[in-house]
Structure formats: C-alpha cells, structure tokens
Amino acid sequence: MRRATLGAVLSALCWIGCRPSEEPAESPPSGEPEATAPPQTPSGVPDAGATFPTTPDAGPDAGRPDAGAADAGFAFGTPGPWPIANAIFNEGHGIAETGVVGFSTDEAQNRWAATAQALYLLRPGEAAFRRFTAADGLHLQSNPVAYCDSNFAGGDRACPIYGAAVDPGISEIVGGGPNEVFVGYHGNTDGPGDWSDPHRHTGKLDRVRLRPGGTLEVDRIDLLANLHGAQWWHDRTVHRLVFDHFVHKHDMYVGLNHGVAMLRPDRYRRPNPGEWFDSVNVEYMADHLHARVCFHAPCDPQSSGNQRMGGWRGLAIAPDGNLWTAGKWTAAKIRWDPSLVNWISRGGSASFEAAFGDPYPLPPNADGYINEPVFRPPLEGDPVHLTAVSVGADGRVWFASGPDGSDGFAYGVASWDGRKFTVYDPIGQLGMSEASVRDLVALPDGRIVLSGHRTGLTLWDPLTGSHQPLRAPSYLADDRVRRLELDRMVNPPALHVSTERGAAVIRVLPPR
To answer: Which of 33, 63, 275, 478 is the most exposed place for a label (fewest CB within 10 A)?
Structure first.
C-alpha cells in the first residue's frame, strides 16, 4: 500500500494517559503540580532525501558536537583504529560475568560491553576491558537516586522515593558521541504508571561519559511523558537503544516496555535550584510515542481500554532519518521531527509514515496486503512477538519474530517493500536451525545476519538464497546469542555480537 493510502489505516497515536501494555487504562490524579510551561520549539518537516553517506559530513550540525574526525579521533568511513579482523572477547579479556547483554562502540571507537551487573570499556590499543559498577556511579540496584515528589498535586507524594535498576540490572547499551555510552536498565513495570505508582522511578537510563582521568560521569535520565505535569511514568524497562551518528546527529531512541522515547542527550542538563524538573526534561526528552492495535476489535478513538502496545525490542534508523519500530503486537515507522514536543503531540499520520495492524484485516490490495501487523495472527491484538527490524541495502525493511519466553508463536522473518509483506520460514528457507529469531541485521552488501537463541548466526543472501552458519568457536564466544549491532562508522563495518559467554566483532565475512 502506498504512503498516500497508508494514512487511512495508521494506528492512532496514544497520547499521555494511555495504558502500559496490557494493563487497564488509568485516570490521572486530580490537579497538577505548579510548573513552568514547556518551551515550544519550532516545528517543521525534515528533508526526506537524506541517506546514509559513505563518508558522513564532518562539519558542524545544528550547534551540537560534530561527529567527525576532530572530536572522534578518526574519520568516519575509514577502517578506524581497530584491526580489520574478527575478534572474540570473554573472561580472558576481563569480562568477569557471563551473559553479555550489549556490545557497542562510541564515536571515539571505544568498545563498550555490558553484562547485567557491570559495564566494560576497551579503548583502542588496549587488550583488556576495564570494569565499572555501581561503585563508579552506575544506577544499579545498590546505587539508587533519591527523589522527592512532595510537590506533586496527587498520588502518594513520596519523599524520598528511590529510582534505580531492578533485577537483573542492565538490559542494553549503545555507544554515543566520543567517550559516551548509554546504559539501559530493567524496571518494575507493575502498577498504574502514574504519581501513585511506587515503582515509577525504577529502571530507565544512564548517560555515561568517560572523564579524561578514566572515571565516569553518570547522569540518570528518568523517562516520563512530560506534556501534562509529569503524570505518566509508564516507560521503565529498556529493550533497545539506537543512536543516530549520521542523519540527525546525536538523536537517540529508546524502545521500552510501553512506548518509544526520543532523546537529544547533547541538550541534557540538571535543573537549577528551585527549577521545576519537568520544564527541564522537555528540553531534551520526548517519551511515550507508539503505534497500537486493539484486542480482537478495531481501536475505538473514544476508548483506550482494549489497546495493545509495547515490548519495543526492535528499532532501526532508516536512511531518511525516520525510525522503524517493532514490538510485541505491531510495527510502525515514526516520522522524525525537529520538535521534541511534537514527538507525542502530532497524532495519526503526522506521527507515523506507516503503522500496521489496526484495523486488521482489511480487504486485500492488489498485492494481497491486508494491513497485517507484519505477520498474520488469528485476530487483531494477538501478539506477533517482533524482536528486530533492519533496513536493507535495497530499501526493503526486515522484521524478525521470536517470543521473549516459552509462550507464544514464532512467526519467522518478513520483509516490507512498501506495498506488501513477504514471509520467510527461518528453517526451510533461510537455513537457520531454529524457528525463533532473536535478532536480525541487514548488511550493506545486501545479505542478512540472523541469530537464533542457541544456534549462533546464519548469513543469508536474499539474492541467491544461499546461507552459511557463523558459529562458535570460529566466529563467536558461544552460540547463545543475546544481541546484534552493526557499526557503520567504520569501513568495513563491524558486526557486534553479544553472547552468553562473551562478545565478538565480525569484520571479515565469508565471500558470497
């Protein structure tokens, strides 16, 4: 279906107050705290012609720090400071725990890894990772931030109330600007998500910067939807992080248990004495946007009681700078906006270039597309368990499905060409050894990397249908893959693979 007709079936934007995942909608507390009105930033439409450059622009960009050679210490599009070789990292390189949840690089090409309990750093030229914990400022379970909510007009007005990770701890990381990494945490997602919720400050996100002396500067970002007096605290567990190094430089996106947040971390600052915290949040934070479907019926614009949304485990920045999102129930492409306020206040087609699954099904178009939420569940609102999304070199968008636990059906892999979805059987067509796909990355050469839960990686070529396994010990520390990430700042790009027993960098692939 073309863009002109997609608008008729876009999933409606859920504004402040929509319910978290499958929980019932809640009414806000009466009254609002006294607060400075959020500053309104100019609205506008981004240039849709932008593409990932071969060598990104190294010039100044909108007053934000440049991501080019002067700050990063290397020029984008070059091999970078690391060898063009595959490498595996594990306990012999200083990673003390098993269960690596993320592996990423920043714009100085520092390599960052994380387990649930610690953050690790490997600088260019070094052979062993340095380990950081709550003692270094990370907001893990033993290092909570004390908040005072006594100025809230409703809810429990708790003071103090604490915010930090809950078990198991760190969930995801992504490299940012030079010497910068973002650390996402698990949060407690029980409760209504308003001022009365005792878990409202749990989970969330740390911005971590490396000081010249080797210590960390850690700023906790307490995500909330901030257009109506800091009422809605649904988003706590971080599932996926992506950082834009190329198009809208240093914009960052957070896929969470309920919605998707957009951050401009270069604008982060702490409130001044006596300044209402939420009037500062709006300068750099826009939380809560998501597509939605509804349970076994089309969504009613007058009611939110049967909405289904959340579990945003897949995020991918498209060449035009817009954001593809893939969640437990549906998928969508969110339009970029220069205004953070507009992120959650636009609504409908102004927010979404494409959104799938409501209403479902529709009469088929000429290609058989029926507005399915990527795959075809029995009824609207049944989960499709999307785990990943990635944009291919030919413009096709690739999705993967795999339940996050033992329950649910793995639908396989699908591609979107702008008019229809094409579905692939991971075992019968793609050469995988398991049907549940944990992660997926489209490579610049047109091939697709797919990961199972226990059987390593599969390199599949959509052009020829050929496939090759990439397994431990040749390519991976072990075959229990947790996360994939592709670093396009360097050429050739570096595929980062997080596994149960370590991390791997793959820069040399088998030939086609």
So the answer is: 63
